[in-house]
Design a protein that fits this description.
This protein is of the alpha/beta class. It folds into two domains: 107 residues, Threonyl-tRNA Synthetase, Chain A, domain 2 (2-Layer Sandwich); 247 residues, Rossmann fold. Helix content is 40%, strand content 21%. The chain has 13 helices and 19 strands. Helix 8 packs parallel to helix 10. The chain starts with a strand and ends in a 7-residue tail after the last helix. This is FtsK/SpoIIIE domain-containing protein. Pfam families: FtsK_SpoIIIE (PF01580).
């Protein structure tokens, strides 16, 4: 039997049971001409988009059939063979330029057609990112696929009402659906995101110590390599940096790479490096490179107090004269390096000494960067009770951590959802040591970086060349 119900559909009662009714929507018959026009329109629009976004690949596919029709199959074969010979010769003679101008574009087109476009609809539906309203299916729009040396970057327009968090929660579904190891989601602008599917990890192998720069670098120094293989520079002047990671995660690589990059500026008198080494292990090996060095907790407290006096003296001179510090020989940039800050703030038995150290660190991190005093601190345990001033460090680096919750403790809420999987970094020294996620004050998006490994022989060479330089200023 039929019953009229409010709305656009006539619903048929298909079964009745006590206290329940089950309805089935009546099928709405669409004229065949309307369906045909819609299919043709979508096909033409998709073809135009494909040609617009992948002109080289489309030209390569369309040219042989066109030549065969116009001039015969022999001409088509000759053109194809000569073109392939030219491309192979280009690839063998200049592989870098071939990859940049042709190889990556062809691979991007192939991945767009064979992987993403072909599986887009089922993956979106199964992952729960599609919507069904009024009998129609709505899918996020696949806009563009770009191939880089390390990853596929898929540009997507989200459905109205979707959030980036929904996509981040389904990152594992997307990685599995497109047969990739990992998927990271990045917000490009409102309504548009990029899905990053890595296919090659350039950070899987250790990086040898970078060459000591010839020019003086104060603001940002070369630390290691970015995920795409480019050189990564870490800002030190005008900020404070906290490096957190479990034992063996490679904190020493970050500290020594920063020190190594500042040595030419220290020789020029533009930088002073003050070292606090309560563990007496990491920094003591190159103690002759530092303008001031302290290991005993009481000596560390005195050194921090001296840094506070530098801040106060400069603040008095800069007041009403300048707002930002410019490194000079008279007012050099002072970098205070603390190897294991928890030894001074949490594990210190002397309560008064601990309070004195904590107060000095709080003063340095709240007032130091405007007058040219920065702090680079390493931490093993990121819990708040271990270091309650960690939020005073604008820039943070998470190396390998033990638990997923520790990622947000170090980098801030939502960092792990944005792709900072520091808890999944390998514990193998060859694979994971020095690998970390950097979250800067100016950008909430975490960046994956691996710091170069500075060996004992590298440190000895640094001491031989730079020890004593700049002392007595």
């Amino acid at each position: 039997m039929l019953r009229k119900l409010p709305g656009d559909y006539t619903r048929e009662i298909v079964s009745t049971v006590p206290n329940a009714l089950v309805f089935r929507p009546t099928v709405v018959n669409t004229p065949a001409i309307v369906t045909l026009v819609a299919i043709v329109s979508r096909a033409v629009a998709g073809l135009v988009r494909m040609v617009w976004r992948h002109p080289i690949a489309c030209l390569a596919v369309a040219t042989p059939p066109a030549l065969a029709v116009l001039y015969g199959w022999l001409v088509a074969v000759l053109v194809v063979v000569s073109t392939m010979t030219t491309l192979v010769g280009w690839w063998l003679s200049h592989p870098a330029s071939f990859t940049r101008w042709a190889g990556l574009r062809l691979r991007a087109w192939w991945r767009w057609m064979w992987t993403y476009r072909r599986h887009w609809q089922p993956v979106m539906v199964i992952a729960g990112l599609a919507a069904h309203i009024g009998g129609r299916e709505y899918l996020p729009r696949l806009l563009k696929v770009t191939r880089t040396a390390t990853a596929d970057v898929v540009c997507v327009r989200m459905l109205s009402g979707q959030s980036v968090t929904e996509w981040q929660d389904r990152a594992d579904n997307l990685a599995h659906g497109f047969a990739c190891v990992q998927c990271r989601i990045k917000l490009d602008r409102p309504g548009r995101i990029s899905l990053v599917f890595p296919h090659r990890d350039l950070l899987a192998a250790p990086i040898l110590a970078l060459s000591v720069p010839r020019e003086t670098q104060v603001s940002a120094v070369a630390i290691g390599l970015h995920e795409d293989g480019s050189l990564y520079r870490l800002k030190l002047h005008g900020t404070h940096v906290l490096v957190a990671g479990a034992t063996g995660a490679g904190k020493g690589s970050w500290l020594w790479s920063a020190i190594r990059g500042l040595l030419p500026a220290r020789r020029a008198g533009l930088v002073e490096i003050w070292a606090l080494d309560p563990k007496l292990m990491e920094l003591s090996y190159g103690r002759d490179l530092f303008d001031h060095y302290a290991a005993d907790p009481s000596d560390c407290a005195d050194l921090l107090a001296a840094a506070v006096k530098v801040i106060q003296e400069r603040a008095g001179r800069f007041a009403g004269v300048q707002r930002n510090h410019i490194p000079t020989v008279h007012d050099p940039f002072v970098l205070v390096v603390v190897d294991e800050v928890a030894f001074l703030t949490a594990y210190q038995a002397d309560r008064k000494l601990k309070e004195r150290i904590t107060a000095a660190l709080a003063t340095l991190t709240t007032q130091g960067r405007a007058v040219g005093v920065g702090v680079l601190a390493a931490l093993q345990d990121p819990r708040k009770e271990v270091l309650n001033i960690r939020n005073l460090f604008p820039d943070k680096i998470a190396l390998r951590l033990d638990e997923p919750s520790q990622v947000d403790l170090v980098l801030g809420d939502g960092a792990r959802d944005r792709g900072a999987l520091a808890d999944q970094i390998s514990s193998s020294p060859l694979i994971g040591a020095g690998v970390g996620y950097v979250r800067l004050e100016a950008s909430p998006e975490p960046v994956r970086v691996r710091a170069a490994y500075v060996s004992d022989s590298d440190i000895r060479a640094m001491v031989a060349e730079f020890a004593g330089v700049g002392e007595g200023r």
